[in-house]
Amino acid sequence: MATTAEIKTSFTSKHVEDNEKGVLSSHISDSSLQYDEETVKRIKRKIDIRLVVAGMGADIDLTGTNYSTIVAVFFPTYTVFQPLMTVLARKIGPRIFMGFITVAWGLVMVGMGLVNNWRELAGLRVVLGLFEAGLFPAAVFLISSWYIRHETGKRIGLFYLLGSAISSFGGILAYGLQQMHRLQGHAGWRWIFIIEGVLTVAIGLAGFVLIIDFPEDARRTRWFLTDREIDIMIDRVEKDRGDAHVTPFVLREYLSYAFEWQGWLLAVNFLMTAIVIYAVSYFLPIVLMQGLGFGVAEAQTLTAPCFLFGTLLGLTESWLSDKYKTRGIIVVINALLQIVGVALLGYAKNNGVRYFGAFILTGSCNANIPAALTYQSNNITGQWRRAFGSGLIVGAGGVGGIIGGLVFRDQDAPDYRPGLWTCFIAAAITVVSVGITTVTMGRRNKRQERGEVIFDTPGFKFTL
To answer: Which CATH class is domain 41-449?
Structure first.
């Protein structure tokens, strides 16, 4: 592995050639480390495997604003604790950190199945937000630490979209678990939380063993990767963006990243997408029942194909995005599809057409989550800047969750116009935001070609 003494400050002709092809070659590299593409593919496969590892209302009063409150109280802790959680993940290590919060998350879910009123449920949702705040940003941070920039799209997509595909059957699973109604004296909705909580605990315990650490700490699991394989992956990241080696944590410097414009613009893209995906996730079954006239079982079943389409669309886009080294256009395409989907769902007369609109809307906003995350992760460098950026963007998603969880109101049934127009506006803002980001980053890339250094990293260019 390259040491500080081995840091070089000049580029070879091969580095320049790589830059012209869109692959950054950093000044931090160990030129003595030799490896071929087949070796890199074999190592990536090994790392890939490790990284991508109803009836309640009758018992608990969910009338009026109670349900929306329960939805919303999750997000303050989920949002506020994001930046802190990424620091803890880097300090403690993802294997211990992510394993612990997943077990704690599962235990909270079990508790949610044992509550007696909506206030207790709301309180546990607050605690759930705290634990869940650490998982997603830590995972994105971890993935970006192991791979070069044009390899992260499909990995982030796979991580998020496989989980989404499994979750798409949540409605069907929930309907099945409801059939356990009165077993051991518990209502069916309680069994949903209890069983899913137990499964989450089991996954968290497995994570203590299976989750990979950050590259510089991965030698603890050398039975999984050899020292040379770790050195190769670190060397590739150094050549790509020059930040494979962690620097000392300085709180003042860490907080100063909040004043960098590009982080906030990239977070806006994710915030707007989050508004739509949370609105769809929470309220699509309600819209299908009240607006399109389906029953409970039908509504829960019909949401699954919508999310599965999002998984297929997102994985395809992630692969194309990596292949052609482009990010912003994917986010824009999905935002435009969201506008089409909202229009069909909200204003078409035929129920089949309206369901097709739900299909497009759900699929495109689901696919846009990894697209927006990849767009952000590709355009920042530095270990702690990326840690802050991961917390900021996922925290922005939490704000989007608060908005998305409140815009589909009971009094707006069956048309839900305010909710639909919120989704319209959010998708339109995404298009504008990506346009601004593309123009500003493109201008800085041109200045970089004339000698400007971006993020104190010679050779670094934004990925548009």
So the answer is: mainly alpha
